[in-house]
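The data are quoted verbatim for completeness:
=====
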Amino acid sequence: MTVVMEVSVVPLGTGSASVSHYVAQCVQVLEDAGIPYQLTAMGTILEGELEELLSLARRMHAVPFSAGAVRVVTTIKIDERRDKELTIAGKIRAVEEKLGR
């Protein structure tokens, strides 16, 4: 069953306030995996099977360490429904419909 998951990977101890370089490397993990995702200003939303997404989140979490970060804080939110299909687009569409768009 498909789940929607938001993941935010925050490297600390990098010597710079900018983290976009690390974020880009984390997003590359998703590009290489070929799964549906949506990059946002505060995190990345993924769509797929739970076990696969958790595995990808673990790989994303490791990226900043391999690039020199000394601490990484990763936050994960999982939305799983068992009564109907769940997609990123469907969640957005449901809110937009209620807004009359």
Summary: The domain at 2-98 is CATH 3.30.70.930 (Alpha-Beta Plaits).
